[in-house]
Amino acid sequence: MVWQGKYDSLFINGQWEDPSSGDVLSVVSPTTEQVIATVPSGSAEDMDRAVAAARTAFDGGSWSRMSVDGRIAVLRAASDLFQQCEELIAETVSAEMGCPITLARTMQSRNPRIFLDTMVDVAESFPWNAVRRSGIGQALVTRNPVGVVAAVVPWNVPVLATMIKIVPALLAGCTVVLKPSPEAPLSSYLVAEIFQEAGLPDGVLNVVPADREASEHLVSHPGVDKVSFTGSTAAGRRIAAVCGNDLRRVTLELGGKSAALILDDADMDLVVENVRNLSLRNSGQTCSNKTRILVPRERENDLHDRLVAMVESMPVGDPADPATQIGPMVTQAHRRRVEGYVDAGRRDGATVLIGGGRPAELGKGWYVEPTIFTDVQQSMQIVQEEIFGPVLTVQGYTDVDEAIALANGTDFGLSGSVFSVDEERAVGVALRIHTGAVEVNGAPVGWRAPVGGVRASGIGREAGPEGLEAYVEAKSIGISAELADRLS
C-alpha cells in the first residue's frame, strides 16, 4: 500500500469521487496552529450519493449474502494492511488531533487492529444460526444484517472509534457510510484505502467528511437503517430524538465523568500510575478517563503529594516528541472550553493543587497544564460536567457507602476504577457502581467484553458478541422437528 496523501475527494461506491461543491474543512495542527490539510466538506447531496451506494451494495450486492467466512477473509486481509501501516496511522492521528506519538502508536494505531482481530475471533463463534425448541414447536433463529449503517465518529480516537463501529457492522454483512469528525478526518482516508485494498466490494464502505448540517441529513436519511454515534451527550440526545422519530435503530456512546475509587488498603504506587495512564490519557481527551479521584480522608495528603510529583514528571509539549505525555487540546475553541472549567472551579471555591494555566514555555499550540483540584464539592461544575481535558478532581470520603454515593452522584455512567489489595472486595464495590465498565486495579476489560454507558453516557453496547448483536436482526423460522434434528 502506497499512500499518496491526497485528501481532495470523497470515497463513494469504491471510487474517489469529486464532491458536489467546493466547500472544504480545514485541518489545523493543534501544535503549530497552521492548516496542514483540507478535505471536502460533504453536502446533503454527497450524503445522498453515499447512502445510495451503500443501499445498492446491501440490497443487490454480494456482501450481505456472502458467507461469514468470506467476510472474515476480507477483514483478515485488512488487519494485515493495518499492521503494515501502523506508524503512518499513528503519525497521521498525532498530526491532526495532537495525541502524543508514543501513545498514538498504541491507542490510535495498534489497538484498532487488535480490536479488528478480536472481533473476527468473536464472529467465528457467534451464534449466527441456532435451533431452539419448546413445548409447542421449534424454530431456526437466524441473525441477519440490519442494513445500511451511518457511523459517526469523534476526533479524539478517530481510527479506534471507526473500527469499533465498522468492523462489527461489516462482519454482520451491513454496508456503511462513515462520517468522520471535521477536526480529524485525515485518518479516515487511510481506513478507506486499507479496506479497498483488502478486497471490500464497491459501496460497502463509503467515507464522507461533513459539518453538522450534512451530518444530520445522514442520520435522518430514510435509506439508513441504523445509526452508531460516539460523541457528546448533547449531540447524542439530538440523534436519539431523530432516530426515535423514525424508529431507526441507534447505538450511542456518549460522555463520561468516571470515578477512580481508592479503598483504604489500596497500593498508592499502583493508583498513581493508573491516574497517569487512565485519567490523563490522550491529554485528558478520552471519554472513559477516570477524572474524579475518590480517596479515604486519612490518605488524602499522601495522595496529594504523589499526584503533584506525578504531574511534575509528565512532559507537556510537541506530540511528535516521543517523551511528551501531555499534548495540546484539539482546537483553540476546545482549549477555551477547558480553561472555562478551570476558571469555574476556582470561582466555586476549589483549590488548585497543581497546574491551572497554560505552559509558559509553549507560546504556540493549544496547551493546557495538567490541573488537579482539591477541596471540591459534589455540586461543582468541575465534578458534575465532562471537561474533556487534563483536569482532575480529588474528593475525600469517610466510608465506602459515601464513596459509592459520590461515584454514582453524576448524570454519567461510562467507566470507573476501584483500587484495593483485596481484589474480591474491590469487585464487590465495583458491582455497586452504576456504570458500563469498571476496572479493578486498572485491569482492562478487553475487547471481548461489552463497553458502553448508562444514563447520560449512552445507549447500547459495543465490542464482544454484544457488539455484533447491535448490527443484526433476529428472525425466527418455524420448522419441523425432523428438520430441527438435522440442523442441530
CATH superfamily of the largest domain: Aldehyde Dehydrogenase, Chain A, domain 1
Helix count from the secondary structure assignment: 16
CATH class of the largest domain, please? Alpha Beta
Largest sheet: 7 strands, mixed
| Global mean pLDDT | 97
Beginning-to-end CA distance, first to last residue: 44 Å
Low-pLDDT parts are none
Active site: 253
Catalytic activity: an aldehyde + NAD(+) + H2O = a carboxylate + NADH + 2 H(+)
EC number: 1.2.1.3
Pfam family, one: Aldedh
Question: Which key terms come to mind for this protein?
Answer:
488 residues, Aldehyde Dehydrogenase, Chain A, domain 1, Aldehyde Dehydrogenase, Chain A, domain 2, 2 domains, 6-stranded mixed beta sheet, oxidoreductase, Ald_DH/histidinol_DH
Explain what you see:
The active site is at 253. It catalyses: an aldehyde + NAD(+) + H2O = a carboxylate + NADH + 2 H(+). Keywords: Oxidoreductase. This is aldehyde dehydrogenase (NAD(+)). This protein has 16 helices and 20 strands. The model has no long low-confidence stretch (mean pLDDT 97). The protein has 2 domains: 10-254 and 453-476, 3-Layer(aba) Sandwich (Aldehyde Dehydrogenase, Chain A, domain 1); 258-440, Aldehyde Dehydrogenase, Chain A, domain 2. It starts with 9 loop residues before the first strand and ends with a helix. It is α/β, with parallel strands linked by helices. The strands form 5 sheets. The chain has a 7-stranded mixed beta sheet with strand order 14-15-16-13-12-17-18, sandwiched between helices. Strands 9-8-7-10-11-19 form a 6-stranded mixed beta sheet, with helices on both faces. It has a 3-stranded antiparallel beta sheet with strand order 5-6-20.
